[in-house]
Every structure is written in structure tokens, then in C-alpha cells.
Design a protein that fits this description.
The structure is a single chain. By secondary structure, this protein is of the alpha/beta class. The protein folds into 2 domains: 5-140 and 205-245, Vaccinia Virus protein VP39 (Rossmann fold, 3-Layer(aba) Sandwich); 144-202. 26% of the residues lie in helices and 33% in strands. The chain is built from 7 helices and 11 strands. The model has no long low-confidence stretch (mean pLDDT 96). The chain binds S-adenosylmethionine (SAM). Residues 4, 7, 20, 44-47, 50-51, 66-68, 71, 90-91, 105-108, 111 line the site of S-adenosylmethionine.
Length: 248
């Protein structure tokens, strides 16, 4: 599991939407949902609700689950949030047989570092879906070695928040081994002189590992794309975009 100050510390949560703008990944998941109007959707690891609220505004019936209270507070303050059912919890809190589509977006899948934890989450999502329901998520392809550009070296990113607060952020990659990448995010607040340090580990599963884990959990893999425009694996943007189904 990661350190996760990024999702739990209100000072860092305030940065999340600034650093994660709506983009092609969100468009992909929204279009997938819109293929079945009025879907019952579970957004596991919904965070600040960027996609969750957009799904509800598109007239789906949406449940967002996240263990980070500070992220849910931001989500629940957004216009349209009142149409979402918010659950402060984890996959095990998902109701049974209640969803046509389950999502984990912005690489939530990689938070489950150990295979046992990943298998457990897939089991809960399988239980939460109706027969024939779909699961979709993204996971970075280890073959693309994306972590090689994560370390910012001596270059700090300078940000100004909407309230005028200034801060600097930078990242150090600590280690890469056994499909796990450990890195530390630093956020310095000049006004207080404080630096928040957030050490995380993410798991990079191969396409074959994802396929195996899904089959063991009882899913059929429909498609795995390499990017947000239905590219083949290896020809997109270093993503593994998975669409799987709970058999009827
Ligand atoms: C990278 S953010 C993604 C947020 C959102 N899905 C998005 O697209 O912006 C990862 C989210 O996963 C949540 N998370 C962490 N551990 C989790 C767990 N065990 N179960 C479900 N979500 C978890 C974090 O709190 C955080 O909100």
C-alpha cells in the first residue's frame, strides 16, 4: 500500500485536480459508460470525484467509494455531487450484484501492490457486478518503463493555487524491482516552510499477469488496449486499458 498523503492530507488533495485535469482517459471511461445509458456504476477509488460526478451528470446511477476522507470531502462539494452515492470505504463495502459497470481509473489498480490484495479487490468487484456486468481499469504497462521519466532531479515544479498559495513539488524515484516502483513525492510550502513527504510504491503488472489475475477472479477479458484510442498494446501511450466481463 502506498503512503497516500496525496489523497489524505487536505493540503495535497487541494492540488489533485490541478495536476490531474480532464483528459483522454476520462473521455474513454465516460464513453464506455455511455454505451449503456442509465448504467449502475461503481467508481472504486473515486478520489476527488472528477469522473464520478461527470458520470452522474451523464445520467448514470453512480456510487463512488474511497478510503480517503479528505478526497471525498472535495468530491462531495462539487456541483452535481448530490446525485452520487458516496461511500467512505473500500471494495469490501460495495453492495452485492448491484452494478452494470465497475471502474478503477487513474491507475487505482496499481495501488494494490501485493497479489493477494489485488485478488481480493477483483473478488469484491466480481461480487458487486451483475451477471454480464463489466469491469474497466487502467494500469501502466511495465514494458513502457514510464518511471524512467518520473524523477524530477533538481527541477521543481512551481504551482500557485487558486487561493494564491505558492508551492513547489518534486519527485525522487527510490527503486525499481520485481514489478514495483517506489518513489517519494515532496511538496514544499514556502509560507510555512513545511515540506510534506509522501513515499509510495506502485505495482506494474504485465498484460499476462493482468489477464491471469482476471481469469482466476472469474472474469472474461474482453479487450486490453495500449492507449485511449483503442490502440494495440505497445502502440498507444504506455497504458494497459482493460475491459473485462463477469460471465452471464
Ligand atoms: C490516483 S487516485 C485516482 C482517483 C480517481 N479515480 C481519478 O480518476 O481521479 C487513487 C485513489 O485510490 C484511492 N485508494 C487508495 N487505497 C484504496 C483502496 N484500498 N481501495 C480503494 N481506493 C483506494 C485513493 O484514496 C485515491 O483517491
Amino acid at each position: 500500500m502506498t503512503g497516500q498523503a496525496e489523497y489524505n492530507d487536505p493540503r495535497l488533495v487541494a492540488l489533485y485536480d490541478l495536476q490531474n485535469r480532464w483528459s483522454a482517459d476520462d473521455g474513454f471511461f465516460l464513453a464506455l459508460a455511455n454505451g449503456q445509458p442509465g448504467s449502475r456504476i461503481l467508481d472504486l477509488g473515486c478520489g476527488t470525484g472528477r469522473l464520478t460526478v461527470a458520470l452522474a451528470l451523464a445520467r448514470h446511477r453512480v456510487t463512488g467509494i474511497d478510503p480517503a476522507r479528505a478526497s471525498l470531502d472535495v468530491a462531495q462539494a462539487k456541483p452535481g455531487a448530490e446525485a452520487v452515492r458516496w461511500i467512505h470505504g473500500t471494495a469490501e463495502d460495495a453492495p452485492e450484484g448491484a452494478f452494470d459497470l465497475a471502474l478503477m481509473t487513474s491507475h487505482v489498480a496499481q495501488i494494490f501492490v501485493e497479489d493477494a490484495a489485488w485478488a481480493e479487490v477483483l473478488g469484491h468487484l466480481h461480487r458487486a457486478l451483475v451477471s454480464g456486468g463489466r469491469l474497466a481499469f487502467d494500469s501502466r504497462d511495465p514494458a513502457a518503463r514510464g518511471w524512467e521519466v518520473w524523477d524530477s532531479g533538481d527541477e521543481h515544479e512551481h504551482l500557485t493555487l487558486p487561493d494564491g498559495q505558492e508551492l513547489d513539488t518534486w519527485t525522487k524515484v527510490e527503486g525499481v524491482a520485481d514489478g514495483r516502483v517506489t518513489f517519494t513525492g515532496y511538496t514544499h510550502f514556502p509560507a510555512s516552510g513545511e515540506t510534506v513527504v509522501d513515499r509510495s510504491t506502485l505495482r506494474f503488472r504485465t498484460e499476462a499477469e493482468l489477464r491471469r489475475s482476471l481469469v482466476v477472479a472469474g472474469f472474461e477479458v474482453e479487450r486490453i488496449y495500449g492507449g485511449w484510442h483503442a490502440e494495440r498494446v505497445g502502440e498507444g501511450c504506455g497504458e494497459l486499458v482493460v475491459v473485462a466481463r463477469k460471465p452471464r
